Here is the input.
Amino acid sequence: MSTSPQSVRFDDDTLWVSLSDGRTIAAPLAWFPRLLAASTQQRAQVELSKNGLHWDALDEDISVLGLLAGQPDLSRRTRLSEV
Here is the structure.
């Protein structure tokens, strides 16, 4: 069964994603530094796909599977470990 995002919203410190199966996932914005630093207008420019969320201007991609697994943005840690 594939669960896709239906809508995205934010409060001061949380990303909320409503899924096609009726669940809503919440994740701390601190997990996604680019979203945390983004303006309200930038956050609103999300593109929903079958598998996740994409913000072109922010170069941010979040998968539904990653959210369901409780996985924060690993790109920053990966870049630091490559140095």
